[in-house]
Amino acid sequence: FCGPTHHTRNALTGDIDFLSAQSANTGDEVMQGIDISASYDFATGNIKHSVEVQATHLMKYEVTAFDGDTPFVYDGGVGCCDGGYPSWRATGSWSASSGPWHGTYNAQLIGSATDYYGAPGAIGTDIDAVLYHNVQSGYQLTENLKLSAGVDNLFDKKAPYVRSWSDGNTDTMTYSLLGRYFYARATWVLD
User: Fold this and answer.
1) Is 147 part of any domain?
2) What residues have CB less than 8 Å from 142, skipping those under 6 apart?
3) Which residues contact residue 148 at a Cβ distance below 8 angstroms, ignoring those fewer than 6 apart?
4) Taking the model in full, what pTM does it have?
5) How many domains does the chain have?
6) Alpha-carbon distance 156 to 138, whole Å?
7) The Cα angle at residue 89 between residues 176 and 28, in degrees rounded to 5
8) What is the pLDDT along the chain (191 residues), one digit of tens a residue?
9) Domain enclosing residue 147, as ranges
10) Burial status of residue 170 (CB atoms within 10 A of its CB: 0-12, 13-18, 19 or more)
11) Can you tell me the distance from the alpha carbon of 86 to that of 9, in angstroms, rounded to the nearest whole number?
């Protein structure tokens, strides 16, 4: 980040295509938002439950390279640099356990967004919200050994098409690329 005589941007993408590094950095970054979190534990019979919700509403995220430059607005967008910044993100989970058994359901919301460099009205410019569902269960076999298995992206939700990002056709740092996947794990704790 430096003065306008020391860098140029590609007119189509906005990416810096020439930069002369200087000894001073006078840029500005402004981020404003609200984080919400709640959890509740309760029991029904011999089953212990835990419900948790976390949400983030990003209201403003702008980066200005130097005084007098036009700010780059990140809030509400995906398809650039270091991941997406949709206005809303949230995750919620419900866990239940009884004796050696444990199970968890988790949902992850990535809110709707706009491709930073997408042409208005073009395919992949306006991106709908994505909701991923995950489940896991486990069994404490012995004091030292726990077995667990799960499915992430239970309903095989495909990553949305983001036109300007990469050869992956999506924002690979925001959305799940693997589709539905299964896993199993054995955890051994040493005394």
Assistant:
1) yes
2) none
3) 102, 136, 137, 138, 139, 184, 185, 187
4) 0.79
5) 1
6) 22
7) 105
8) 455 666 677 777 777 777 666 554 558 889 999 999 999 999 999 999 999 999 999 999 998 888 888 898 889 988 776 678 999 999 999 999 999 999 999 999 999 999 888 888 888 889 999 999 999 999 999 999 999 999 999 999 999 988 776 667 888 888 888 899 999 999 999 98
9) 29-188
10) buried
11) 24
Residue 138 lies in a domain: yes
Domain membership of residue 18 (yes or no) is no
Q: Measure CA 109 to chain center.
A: 8
Contacting residues for 38 by C-beta, under 8 A, at least 6 apart: 52, 53
pLDDT, position 2: 56
Cβ atoms of 171 and 79 closer than 8 Å:
yes
Using alpha carbons, select from 122, 94, 121 the residue that is nearest to residue 107.
94
Exposure pattern of 76-105 as b/e (b: 16+ CB <10 Å)? bbbbbeeebbbbbbbbebebbbeeeebbbe
DSSP of 25-45, one letter per residue?
---EEEEEEEEEEEEEEEEET
Residue 134 token pair:
């995950």
13 found inside a domain: no
Question: Which amino acid is it at 170?
Answer: T
